[in-house]
Amino acid sequence: MVLEILTYPDKRLFDKGEEVKVFDEKLGLFLDDMYDTMIAKNGIGLAALQVGKPIRAFIVNLVNEQDIQDKNDLYEIINPKFIKKDGEIVYQEGCLSVPGYYEDVKRAANVLLEYQDRFGNTKTLEADGLLAVALQHENDHLDGHLFIERIGFNKRKKFDKEYKKNSKKAI
């Protein structure tokens, strides 16, 4: 089922996700709905907070070498904790909760993440490049942050101006 994605400036996007303690069929169905939503909206990641559920869970599914978003490559990340972050990478990011806006964001180039899967099993994931960026981007949602908070003062002023202009057009 495709869920509604909250968009900026919805205040729920700035809530913090609560730790997941129950790993049951209901959680699995919710993760499946998140996947359907992400694919329907042409995303590569989606956090539970973006669909109005304040829990520490997100999914990431990058496009592979064949230009296919293969569900076998899906990461379901629950209760993530970054063990290590190093290096630096600048990547142009967008967000399903900030539609139509893209900007360069500086993040760690390499990460080591500990998390639980949908069954509560503890796992670790070492990532670099776009996967490292996506993991950090989605984890920011769990802490109540959007990528536009990381773009610098002048770019943020430009974003706010464009956002207000586009909001007036929509009315």
Automatic annotation (TrEMBL):
CDD domains in the record, alphabetically?
Pep_deformylase (cd00487)
Molecular function terms in GO for this entry?
Answer: metal ion binding; peptide deformylase activity
Cite the Gene3D superfamilies for this sequence.
Peptide deformylase (3.90.45.10)
**Is ATP-binding tagged as a keyword?**
no
Query: Which Gene Ontology BP terms does the record give?
Result: translation
Cofactor annotation remark: Binds 1 Fe(2+) ion.
Annotated source species: Campylobacter hyointestinalis subsp. hyointestinalis
Q: What positions constitute the catalytic site?
A: E138
Q: Identify the enzyme class.
A: hydrolase
Q: Which UniProt keywords apply?
A: Hydrolase, Iron, Metal-binding, Protein biosynthesis
Q: What is this protein called?
A: Peptide deformylase
Q: Which HAMAP family match?
A: Pep_deformylase
Required co-factor(s) are: Fe(2+)
What reaction is this protein's catalytic activity?
A: N-terminal N-formyl-L-methionyl-[peptide] + H2O = N-terminal L-methionyl-[peptide] + formate
* Signal peptide positions on this chain: none
EC number(s) per UniProt?
A: 3.5.1.88
UniProt cross-references to InterPro entries, sorted A to Z: Peptide_deformylase, Peptide_deformylase_sf
